[in-house]
Write a structure and sequence with these properties.
globular; Rossmann fold; six-stranded mixed beta sheet; four-stranded antiparallel beta sheet
Length: 276
């Protein structure tokens, strides 16, 4: 990737704005530099612009302003090259497919090679080894031959994550990867995201509905409100009663329960919908 004169490391945005027709959805968002090996939770109320920000960073919607990766303005790159560095995983993954888990991940790996200009007739041993390694890393080897539509929601999310990782991106954008999952599969998916981010030194930005889940796994948070950046920084410094009141409209406190920080409303854990 060609670098501009700036030597800033990480992923950031400068004055990023975006419209749907006449409606402004993102308003001059200046995202601070997110570093390799870190997981950042993107939080905010419904319709704050969270999914839109991910799609704008990925180049899936027209934006104004800049998306910078290691000092390079990604708008200057062809979309195919941009997609090699940044992989976006949407909230809902297709359920109806005839592919098994191995084939789904292999097809993602082959798509990545086609984006590099290679059109091989069959996968190389290196590609097959990469697919097998990703499946092993996410504890999916035993499910490799199982059809996607026969997997649970959590298993499908892990296959989607495997499809993203096999393309070896620098940036991983995940839109609510734990939504609609039970607690066990939430923990499984979150642990897989954290492990992959550290092992592969990814820059991972995750839209999270549940603030307490964000507090549990992210090094830092980015808070959007009405399409603007409301706050960004270490989770324990950003999430406080004032932010919860100003952004979410609730009187809540941040308390430590058995050594873990939790947002409490009227002394109780809130339902997910109350804070997202």
């Amino acid at each position: 990737m060609n670098h501009s004169s700036s030597s800033a490391k990480g992923l950031s945005t400068a004055g990023l704005s975006m419209h749907y027709g006449n409606r402004q959805v993102l308003d001059t968002v200046d995202l601070p530099a997110l570093q390799a090996g870190s997981v950042t939770a993107l939080i905010g109320p419904n319709a704050a612009g969270k999914s839109t920000l991910l799609r704008g960073i990925a180049g899936l919607h027209k934006t104004s302003g800049q998306v910078l990766l290691d000092g390079t303005d990604l708008a200057r790159l062809p979309q195919v090259e941009r997609a090699r560095h940044i992989v976006y995983l949407p909230q809902s993954l297709p359920e109806r497919t005839r592919l098994c888990a191995f084939e789904a991940v292999l097809s993602a790996a082959m798509a990545g090679h086609r984006s590099l200009g290679f059109t091989p007739e069959r996968p190389s041993p290196a590609v097959l080894q990469g697919v097998e390694q990703v499946l092993a890393d996410l504890d999916l080897t035993a499910l490799a031959d199982r059809p996607i539509d026969a997997l649970s929601g959590g298993q499908r999310q892990l296959v989607g994550l495997a499809q993203a990782l096999v393309r070896q991106p620098k940036v991983l954008l995940l839109d609510e990867p734990t939504s609609a999952l039970d607690l066990y599969h939430q923990c499984q998916v979150v642990e897989a995201i954290i492990h992959a981010t550290r092992e592969r030194q990814l820059i991972t930005l995750v839209v999270v509905h549940d603030i307490n889940l964000a507090l549990g796994f992210s090094q830092q948070v980015v808070v959007l409100h009405n399409g603007r950046l409301a706050a960004a920084g270490p989770a324990l410094e950003v999430i406080d009663p004032r932010l919860l009141r100003d952004v979410y409209g609730v009187d809540a406190s941040l308390e430590h329960v058995r050594g873990r920080p939790l947002v409490m409303v009227d002394g109780r854990l809130p339902f997910h919908s109350a804070l997202g």
